[in-house]
Design brief:
Elements lengths: L1 H6 L3 H11 L1 H9 L1 H15 L10 H26 L3 H10 L5 H9 L5 H25 L7 H26 L1 H6 L1 H22 L7 H29 L4 H9 L4 H6 L6 H22 L5 H15 L1
Length: 311
Amino acid sequence: MARIGDFGLFAPPVLFLAGILLPPLALMGQAVLVPCVIVLLAMSVGLAEPGRIEAREWPPVLLLAATNLILTPVVIHGLAVAMGMGAAGGWLVLVAACPAAGGAALVASLLRLPVRPLLLTQLVCFFALPLTAPLIAALVLDGTVIGAQSLFLRVMLMVGLPALLGYALRRGMGEARRIRLVRPMRGLGVLALCGISLSVAAGLPRIGLPLAALAEAMQGLLLASSVGAGLGLLAAAVAARGMLAGFALGGAVRNVSLLWSATLGLAPPEGELVMMLGSLWTLLLPALLGLRPASRLGRALGLAVLALAML
């Protein structure tokens, strides 16, 4: 588990490709999507720095949460309208309105960045999501595709429960044991990401949209990721200059799994494509950052993986 925690961020993209090639393997991942989301968040709680949360920590956290939930989707909506994006545009705005991805906490731990600000931002965003996501969906999409009550119940199951499990795990282990188990806990989080990647591989081939729709969705998601990272940097520059890298990471990758599960059967093919690709990007970007290319070979490998991700 410790070795997986150190180097396993490359495993989710590899398993995604394996799931594309082996559909039965992908179906296994789809069957455990919800447990994987629960394990991922529980491990994120376990990885966060110990100690009482101080009052000075809340302003940057709330600013990044507002940036993720409100400012980024507003900017992306304007860009989608300006670019003339079709049915995928509204769903792209919804992806931009999601909380920071669970993979962000794993990468922050791997790169020795502060984990707790990202985790607190993620929790604030999740519990605000039943209020913000239906409102944004009503503004940018025709018809109601997200019920606030349904989304709230999913938040309680897939966020509240794992957060409590992670907190109980921390208290039960004690701080000395938790420090020794940081790497294995990160490994468990990576395995959960692998399950999520397989579920994406199970759903993607069924959509059957033309290549032009795929290209438009990819272009929009890369744009949303860049805008989110830039606004995260801006939020850190305003309220937490020491957290620039972590806030950029928290703005660039979003946890789409919860929203995806809440809209199953309600989203058109373009919407499902955007959410699946949004989930896939949250797996690719941590792998790229986890490379930590200190050598020429590492930088070359990082560029090669980035080129594949862009393709």
